[in-house]
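Page 37, continued from 36.
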């Protein structure tokens, strides 16, 4: 019998397929890949007998996992990394002076660095959400990653509001931002060999009129794509909605029939467990960004209540001036640790659960569950290899228990991921992204801080926030 010619065979001592309810551990198997998809995962001898591969990926001391999903990112803020943490009123006292000083060009440069950082730590699907997404789409296409991209739709005017003041809606601005979201969808949805998808992004229920919100929803539904929206993301949002409509954001969204399987709800920071459970029961999914919301608000969001109500939860890294990294391994550890502390219970969020949130549960949450998030026949071949000989992964036990998943979640930092592939194509090997010269992008980002800092200085010192104090007191 002649062997069938295929694109790739991947052989490794351990596969974590994420099939079933656990982590789907398999040993002594190989994965056959063709046309960007997974043909089958079978005993290595069977695979060798059936197939002849163009490319062989022989991994002698590695574990193969599905590529990680970073479901919620604002990569353009990466140009402001480390400039807004450790302060109350993060947006006004921390972010604002630098945000006002950042140019579009600087933001694009920041996005590239964030994406490089994420890919190096095993992320293969990037859930970026912002206002200028053309260049992000182009860069994701170039590096060969997968993008689940959202354009911000917002009618609230960009200006400083007094405490307690309602946001002022500008319908022209709202319509323009929606038109940009539609244009991005028309240009990019399904592009890059199907690797890029475009979602619709009302920034939050407080930033748009009800009419506008319903219009966005109708447009997204007509196109069969999802809404990716911040929901009850803080007491500020709750205040705005209660003052305007006399009810809390989740209640309002429920009355508008907004809570359904087409909604990906981000944060739920100010939700009670009951409100989070209601969102889950209505069929919406959740993205939790543990590092970001810990640094910005000092809050652990109700992802456990959401999961207990049967909802899917994905992990996100959010942004670099208040997280401060785009590393989903970090978020797996954060979500596990923070919930153990919140509940005073070491069993509440085990490592395997965090890994499912970064893979299969995350994929389902963002509408990609039919494509990625697990390694099984018929899915796209998005996978990573973790080096089990890295100091942080050693020693490896397989009996009486395996410690590979706990080591990945609690001990790994990112460089343990030595290979990433998307659609059966290797895009990162030994920490290097193959399609680009990373130095071009890393050096480009280094050009901006001097001028951006100078432009931000007056406002930074006028606000005289925590970080201005730290700077004066020799603490930075
Ligand atoms: Zn966000």
């Amino acid at each position: 019998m002649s062997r069938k010619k295929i694109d790739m065979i991947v052989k490794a001592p351990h596969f974590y397929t994420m099939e079933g309810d656990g982590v789907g551990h398999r040993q002594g198997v190989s994965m056959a890949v063709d046309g960007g998809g997974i043909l089958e995962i079978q005993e290595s001898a069977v695979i060798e007998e059936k197939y002849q591969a163009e490319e062989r990926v022989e991994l002698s001391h590695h574990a193969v996992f599905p590529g990680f999903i970073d479901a919620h990112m604002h990569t353009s803020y990466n140009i402001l990394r480390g400039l807004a943490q450790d302060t109350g009123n993060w947006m006004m006292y921390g972010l604002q002076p630098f945000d006002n000083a950042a140019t579009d060009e600087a933001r694009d440069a920041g996005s590239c660095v964030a994406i490089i950082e994420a890919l190096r730590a095993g992320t293969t699907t990037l859930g970026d959400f912002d206002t200028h997404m053309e260049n992000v789409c182009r860069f994701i296409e170039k590096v060969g990653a997968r993008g689940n991209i959202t354009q911000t739709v917002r009618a609230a005017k960009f200006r400083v509001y007094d405490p307690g003041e309602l946001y002022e809606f500008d319908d022209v601005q709202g319509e323009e931002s929606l038109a940009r979201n539609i244009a991005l969808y028309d240009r990019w949805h399904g592009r890059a060999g199907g690797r890029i998808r475009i979602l619709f992004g009302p920034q939050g229920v407080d930033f748009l009129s009800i009419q506008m919100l319903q219009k966005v929803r109708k447009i997204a539904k007509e196109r069969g794509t999802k809404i990716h929206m911040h929901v009850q993301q803080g007491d500020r949002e709750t205040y705005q909605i209660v003052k305007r409509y006399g009810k809390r954001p989740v209640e309002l969204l429920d009355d508008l029939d907004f809570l359904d399987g087409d909604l990906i709800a981000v944060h739920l920071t100010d939700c009670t467990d009951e409100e989070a459970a209601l969102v889950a029961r209505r069929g919406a999914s959740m993205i939790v960004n543990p590092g970001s919301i810990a640094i910005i608000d000092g809050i652990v969001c109700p992802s456990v209540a959401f999961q207990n109500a049967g909802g899917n939860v994905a992990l996100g890294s959010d942004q670099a001036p208040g997280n401060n990294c785009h590393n989903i391994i970090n978020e797996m550890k954060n979500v596990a640790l923070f919930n153990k502390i919140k509940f005073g219970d070491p069993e509440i969020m085990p490592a395997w659960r965090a890994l499912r949130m970064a893979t299969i549960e995350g994929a389902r949450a963002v509408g990609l569950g039919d494509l990625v998030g697990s390694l099984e026949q018929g899915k796209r071949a998005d996978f990573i290899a973790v080096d089990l000989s890295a100091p942080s992964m050693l020693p490896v036990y397989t009996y009486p228990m395996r410690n590979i998943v706990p080591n990945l979640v609690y001990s790994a930092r990112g460089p343990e991921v030595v290979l990433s592939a998307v659609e059966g194509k290797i895009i990162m090997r030994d920490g290097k992204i193959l399609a680009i010269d990373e130095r071009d992008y890393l050096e480009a980002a280094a050009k901006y801080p001097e001028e951006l800092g100078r432009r931000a200085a007056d406002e930074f010192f006028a606000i005289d926030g925590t970080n201005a104090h730290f700077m004066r007191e020799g603490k930075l």
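The chain is about 40% helix and 20% strand. Flag for discussion at group meeting. The pocket of zinc ion is lined by residues 72, 74, 129, 230, 266, 318 (CB under 6 Å).
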